[in-house]
Request: fold
Amino acid sequence: MRDGYVARWRGREFQASPDGGEVRLYQPEATEGFTEVRPGRHVRVVPANEIEELAYVRTTCTWKGQPFIVLAEHDGWLRVEYTGGRWPVAQAMRLEAFDFGVYQGWAPVGEVTDVREQRV
Reply:
Protein backbone atom coordinates (compact mmCIF):
# COMPACT_ATOMS: atom_id res chain seq x y z
CA MET A 1 0.00 0.00 0.00
CA ARG A 2 1.50 3.28 -1.05
CA ASP A 3 0.80 6.79 0.14
CA GLY A 4 3.39 9.34 -0.88
CA TYR A 5 5.45 10.77 -3.71
CA VAL A 6 7.02 8.66 -6.43
CA ALA A 7 9.44 9.82 -9.12
CA ARG A 8 10.57 8.26 -12.37
CA TRP A 9 14.28 8.82 -12.93
CA ARG A 10 16.34 7.12 -15.63
CA GLY A 11 13.38 4.89 -16.46
CA ARG A 12 12.89 3.57 -12.92
CA GLU A 13 10.35 4.51 -10.26
CA PHE A 14 11.47 5.43 -6.73
CA GLN A 15 9.85 6.63 -3.54
CA ALA A 16 10.54 10.34 -3.54
CA SER A 17 10.51 13.57 -1.60
CA PRO A 18 10.51 16.80 -3.61
CA ASP A 19 12.35 19.74 -2.08
CA GLY A 20 12.41 22.85 -4.23
CA GLY A 21 14.83 22.34 -7.09
CA GLU A 22 15.85 18.88 -5.90
CA VAL A 23 14.17 15.52 -5.38
CA ARG A 24 15.33 12.91 -2.88
CA LEU A 25 15.00 9.38 -4.27
CA TYR A 26 14.77 6.39 -1.92
CA GLN A 27 15.30 2.68 -2.37
CA PRO A 28 15.94 -0.31 -0.11
CA GLU A 29 19.05 -1.64 -1.93
CA ALA A 30 22.58 -0.28 -1.89
CA THR A 31 23.33 1.12 -5.35
CA GLU A 32 26.08 3.32 -6.74
CA GLY A 33 25.28 6.97 -6.06
CA PHE A 34 22.88 6.21 -3.19
CA THR A 35 23.87 6.78 0.43
CA GLU A 36 22.63 4.53 3.23
CA VAL A 37 20.69 6.58 5.78
CA ARG A 38 19.68 3.52 7.82
CA PRO A 39 19.61 -0.22 7.13
CA GLY A 40 17.37 -0.88 4.14
CA ARG A 41 17.01 2.83 3.26
CA HIS A 42 19.24 4.55 0.69
CA VAL A 43 18.88 8.07 -0.68
CA ARG A 44 20.14 10.01 -3.65
CA VAL A 45 19.45 13.70 -4.29
CA VAL A 46 18.98 14.68 -7.93
CA PRO A 47 18.06 17.95 -9.64
CA ALA A 48 14.31 18.22 -10.22
CA ASN A 49 14.87 18.82 -13.94
CA GLU A 50 16.29 15.27 -14.26
CA ILE A 51 13.02 13.73 -13.02
CA GLU A 52 10.95 12.22 -15.83
CA GLU A 53 7.72 12.13 -13.81
CA LEU A 54 6.68 13.12 -10.30
CA ALA A 55 3.35 12.04 -8.84
CA TYR A 56 1.61 11.52 -5.53
CA VAL A 57 0.31 7.98 -5.09
CA ARG A 58 -2.54 7.36 -2.69
CA THR A 59 -4.26 4.04 -1.94
CA THR A 60 -7.99 4.26 -1.35
CA CYS A 61 -10.55 1.71 -0.24
CA THR A 62 -14.06 1.16 1.02
CA TRP A 63 -14.75 -0.18 4.51
CA LYS A 64 -18.28 -0.80 5.77
CA GLY A 65 -19.58 1.18 2.79
CA GLN A 66 -17.52 4.29 3.59
CA PRO A 67 -14.53 5.85 1.74
CA PHE A 68 -11.05 5.70 3.24
CA ILE A 69 -7.38 6.31 2.46
CA VAL A 70 -5.04 3.44 3.34
CA LEU A 71 -2.12 4.76 5.39
CA ALA A 72 -0.39 1.53 6.40
CA GLU A 73 -0.68 -2.23 6.62
CA HIS A 74 0.31 -4.44 9.55
CA ASP A 75 -0.37 -8.06 10.39
CA GLY A 76 -3.68 -8.43 8.54
CA TRP A 77 -4.93 -4.93 9.41
CA LEU A 78 -5.02 -1.67 7.48
CA ARG A 79 -4.57 1.74 9.08
CA VAL A 80 -7.25 3.80 7.39
CA GLU A 81 -8.37 7.43 7.39
CA TYR A 82 -12.01 8.27 6.79
CA THR A 83 -12.60 10.66 3.88
CA GLY A 84 -16.39 10.90 4.04
CA GLY A 85 -16.33 14.02 6.22
CA ARG A 86 -19.28 13.08 8.42
CA TRP A 87 -18.58 13.05 12.15
CA PRO A 88 -21.66 10.92 13.05
CA VAL A 89 -20.43 8.20 10.68
CA ALA A 90 -16.90 8.35 12.10
CA GLN A 91 -18.33 8.16 15.62
CA ALA A 92 -20.61 5.22 14.78
CA MET A 93 -17.60 3.37 13.31
CA ARG A 94 -15.65 4.08 16.52
CA LEU A 95 -12.85 5.81 14.68
CA GLU A 96 -10.39 7.81 16.72
CA ALA A 97 -10.18 11.56 16.24
CA PHE A 98 -6.62 11.99 15.04
CA ASP A 99 -7.01 15.74 14.51
CA PHE A 100 -9.93 18.10 14.02
CA GLY A 101 -12.04 16.49 11.28
CA VAL A 102 -9.55 13.65 10.77
CA TYR A 103 -10.67 10.18 11.84
CA GLN A 104 -8.57 7.04 11.70
CA GLY A 105 -8.85 3.42 12.68
CA TRP A 106 -7.67 -0.13 12.03
CA ALA A 107 -9.71 -2.23 9.58
CA PRO A 108 -9.33 -5.99 9.11
CA VAL A 109 -8.00 -6.61 5.58
CA GLY A 110 -10.82 -9.07 4.91
CA GLU A 111 -13.47 -6.39 5.47
CA VAL A 112 -11.95 -3.85 3.07
CA THR A 113 -13.05 -3.68 -0.57
CA ASP A 114 -12.33 -1.63 -3.67
CA VAL A 115 -8.64 -1.15 -2.87
CA ARG A 116 -6.97 0.88 -5.60
CA GLU A 117 -4.00 3.08 -6.18
CA GLN A 118 -4.55 6.59 -7.50
CA ARG A 119 -1.89 8.86 -8.98
CA VAL A 120 -2.36 12.58 -8.49
